[in-house]
What we know:
Strand content: under 5%
Mean pLDDT: 85
Largest sheet: none
Distance between the termini: 20 Å
Structural class: mainly alpha
Radius of gyration: 19 Å
Number of helices: 15
Low-confidence stretches: none
Oligomer: single chain
Order of helices and strands: HHHHHHHHHHHHHHH
Shape: globular
Amino acid sequence: xxxxxxxxxxTAILMWSFLALFTAAxxxxxxxxxxxxxxxxxxxxxxxxxxxxxxRLALLKQPAxxxxxxxxxxxxxxxxxxxxxxxxxxxxxxxxxxxWPLLIVVGSALLPGERLRWYHVAGALxxxxxxxxxxxxxxxxxDGAYAVGxxxxxxxxxxxxxxxxxxxxxxxxxxxxVTGFCLATSILSLLCHLGLxxxxxxxxxxxxxxxxxxxxxxxxxxxxxxxxxxKNGDIQILGAASYAAPLLSTxxxxxxxxxxxxxxxxxxxxxxxxxxxxxxxxMFRRKAQLRPAAAx
Length: 296
């Protein structure tokens, strides 16, 4: 059960690795407008489940703290991320924001039934080093003039790691509530768009396909898979493995001609993959223990 849930959680990481490609292909739509549309699309699978199985509507009746955590996690993360990108260079902002996997691994020690081992931290740090190689490929220079952007990026990291850790504490809450989180995030993003941005629609059918792809996968199904994974799987392994997202994203961008291959990518691949394997020692040991039992 735990292995299956961990693998489901890892599919979220795989889907997030397509975020940059789909975003690059989606045209010039401003970020909050894109977020509003994508989260609306992302809520459709959950709405269909509720439509064909109305009895599950009762699962949406949850305490206010569950709704506040979910909405703050999804909307808060994206609001802070877009704010960081508006007020600081993308490379530095991205590096700071991507501290959340490390924060998840370290913070998981505070969860009931979890123990933080040296290899969890070592695996997460290896992944962080690999991520640094990717995002700093064009140089990195932290400038005090971008303090607002850096601060937003740091809050972004704490927001998503906090959401993921708190979600684990709501393990009895059905993943159906993610549908409500997506709808609320879409509405709040729309309000931000109307107040802060000019409306720009996709210019081609290909750009619309990219927008729909964003809504169905990285900004849709990924959140359902992540919710299920962190509630029922190994959150420490998922935290360390999350560093695969920027690596896979860069490899995908390279494959489709949006980025160039380099030694940094090869070294980052070794660091991220090695870190994930190191952090997953508990899972490998459990599988090894299960095999003799199954043979008997």
